[in-house]
Amino acid sequence: MYDTTMYALGAKRSAIRALFDYGQEQAAKVGKENVFDFSIGNPSIPAPNCVQDEIVRLAREEAPAAIHGYTPAPGDPVVRQGVADYMNQTFQANVTGNNFYMTCGASASLAIILRALIAENEDEIIVNAPFFPEYRVFIQNAGGRLVMVPPDTEQFQLSMTGLAEAITSHTKAVIINTPNNPSGSVYSADTLMKLGELLRCKSAEFGHPIFLISDEPYREVIYDGLPVLYVPEFYKNTVICYSYSKSLSLPGERVGYILVPNEVDGSREIFTAVCGSGRSMGFVCAPHLFQKVILACQGKTANIGIYDSNRKLIYHGLTDIGFQCVYPSGAFYLFVKAPDGDANQFMENAKKLNILIVPGDEFGCPGYCRISYCVDPDMIRRSLPVFKQLYELYSHV
Ligand code: PLP
Predict the structure, then answer these.
(1) Class of domain 4-48+302-392
(2) Does pLDDT of 397 surpass 90?
(3) Does the beta carbon of 184 sit less than 6 angstroms from any atom of ligand 1?
(4) pTM of the full structure
């Protein structure tokens, strides 16, 4: 009657969504001001002005078909070339519009590229814990096998030894995500250099390219003046999955891209497979209006400084209480250690105090909980005494 795998997927709610829904129900019962919802990564700051200005301008000046009609499946050629120009100016990327496939956000980018690359049932995709839980779904849907590199809970950096051990003759690709959800860690140029070296060595050893999929929805959400890096510079077989969900605060508008640079082995064939994969999943074209909007907003971001001050507020607030966590350098998440190591009980204890945080199990990192600080700073301030109450439950630890 129906596919049981898809049924199971539909029936199993994501822990994040379940908590978010619970928060909405609790707010109706006890008042919004008494619920401290740190569950979901929904940008809390408005999109930059260029977004609204361009929406208004396009609606007034353009013919409906030019903003609401279909574009070619890989996207509006003018938009793709405009994004390429921006990448060339910013990163000396040496790309053209033909290297870009516009998508409905990073989720679509990942689902499409994985379906395009995974050719055989034994193809393995390596993910580095902690990782975005939807990778499991996209890899499974593409017929691949997920191989997890255990987390480095000291710094939440990439474990080169773990990665070297995980790569086999079946490895098709490695996914990285920097700045990282859920740890907030950012990989340095040195780390990416070592990663490139390792992947070149392993590709040579096994006689086929191991692709690097760089999942970059938080590329510009980075602090302390750290540089925004262009990952293909460190390893040529890199495909970028980008999204405007976070940088422009547009998660509901569903717009992003896949970038397959010419330097990637079999670049044109892979790009063609991306087109086929998108087609097979029914992605006819990314939303036309928002393709045009992001074109006008290249190089702009929402006010990331607000996340930065939230970061300091929550990090110092929680560590002053006694909680342990690594200081995040990017994205808008803090990954806090459960005082007694049991993250699910920690989440339940927090929930009783109306603090909603997400256990790290789904991210491949038990023992930690994710706190999304893309929230109203006032909520963070009001939550700190309640976090203190939560910490006191663990005074015996
Ligand atoms: N990858 C990571 C690491 C994410 O955190 C998210 C969203 O939170 C996505 C991909 C999906 O983003 P999008 O909204 O662009 O589909």
Answers:
(1) alpha beta
(2) no
(3) no
(4) 0.97
